[in-house]
């Protein structure tokens, strides 16, 4: 990345953490200030400005969240905004694990559904409160005992909390994170697509002979009308993600298409939850819909964050020399 691209990437990271009405003015002010600082550093070093010099100047200037905090109005924030999707994902995973471990008690007739719900089903939602308190405490620690900017050393209390505390800023780190996430999610997405296409049939071949899998049968109307477009959307999205992961040049041209398919897929799942019976077995249908609502909540938050990031890019109106 050249000097101007690195500065723009840094400014857009700062702007994403600012109120909308302040983004353009502060972003343009920062672009002028940082461009001059890089130029001054180049003159002091007696050489032309380059990407390495720009990164060094920007790191000395501060992490994007720290710079945004200098401009943003003070306010109360229980959980840092960048951690909200992670909290929701962890909550969905914890709830799914508790249900998966305890639901066999219902299917084996050792507990009724009502007994299971009172003992294990409803109590799984306590994970939401536990995670909120954990991340809130970690955020307080982060603000109360900040990392030493000169050495990167963290006070000992930081290690009491497993939280991804902010690291040094690197240009293009958001894109790199998305690429790593796509690589990790592709195999899981392919496996879930295959399983979602015919869960009862697949489980019947994986489980020992004689095990009842009728609880995993789809509702007839859902299987006939809604399942085919859902599978088609999942398959097309997987192909596009694989394409942009393997070939970077397709990322920008297909971004709008991938986003539109994502929104369409989430909207179709919302319709399935509230307008259809997904599974023929009432208990399976109710439990799957409860889990699916968490999945949709996470995706809705991610869609809103994607829209927010797309709207925070500072206009390129300053002439670059």
What does this structure look like?
The longest helix has 29 residues. It contains 13 helices and no strands. Among the domains are: 69 residues, no CATH class; 142 residues, no CATH class. The two termini are 16 Å apart. The chain is mainly α and 321 residues long. Helix 1 crosses helix 4, helix 5 packs antiparallel against helix 8 and helix 9 runs antiparallel to helix 11.
Give the secondary structure arrangement, pairings included:
Elements: H1 3-15, H2 20-45, H3 51-61, H4 64-71, H5 84-102, H6 104-107, H7 113-121, H8 126-144, H9 173-197, H10 199-206, H11 220-246, H12 255-275, H13 282-310
Helix pairs in contact: 1-2, 1-3, 1-4, 2-3, 5-8, 5-13, 9-11, 11-12, 12-13
């Amino acid at each position: 990345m050249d000097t101007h691209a690195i500065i723009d990437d840094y400014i857009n990271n700062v702007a994403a953490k600012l109120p909308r009405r302040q983004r353009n003015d502060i972003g343009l002010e920062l672009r002028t200030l940082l461009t001059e600082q890089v130029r001054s550093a180049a003159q002091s070093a007696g050489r032309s400005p380059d990407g390495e010099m720009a990164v060094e100047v920007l790191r000395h200037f501060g992490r994007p969240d720290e710079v945004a905090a200098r401009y943003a109005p003070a306010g109360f924030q229980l959980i840092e905004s960048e951690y909200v999707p992670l909290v929701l994902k962890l909550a969905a995973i914890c709830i799914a694990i508790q249900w998966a471990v305890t639901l066999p008690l219902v299917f084996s007739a050792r507990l009724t559904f009502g007994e299971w719900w009172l003992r294990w089903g409803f109590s799984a939602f306590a994970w939401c409160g536990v995670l909120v308190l954990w991340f809130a405490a970690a955020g307080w620690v982060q603000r109360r005992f900040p990392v030493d900017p000169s050495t990167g050393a963290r006070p000992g209390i930081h290690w009491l909390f497993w939280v991804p505390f902010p690291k040094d800023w690197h240009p293009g780190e958001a894109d790199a994170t998305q690429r790593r996430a796509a690589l990790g999610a592709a195999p899981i997405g392919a496996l879930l697509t295959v399983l979602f296409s015919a869960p009862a049939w697949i489980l019947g071949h994986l489980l020992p002979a004689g095990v009842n899998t009728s609880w995993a049968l789809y509702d007839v109307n859902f299987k006939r009308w809604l399942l085919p477009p859902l599978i088609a959307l999942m398959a097309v999205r997987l192909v596009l993600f694989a394409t942009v992961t393997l070939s970077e040049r397709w990322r920008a041209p297909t971004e709008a298409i991938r986003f539109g398919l994502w929104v369409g897929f989430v909207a179709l799942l919302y319709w399935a939850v509230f307008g259809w019976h997904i599974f023929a077995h009432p208990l399976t249908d109710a439990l799957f819909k409860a889990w699916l609502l968490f999945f949709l909540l996470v995706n809705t938050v991610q869609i809103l964050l994607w829209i927010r990031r797309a709207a925070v890019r500072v206009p390129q109106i300053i002439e670059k020399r």
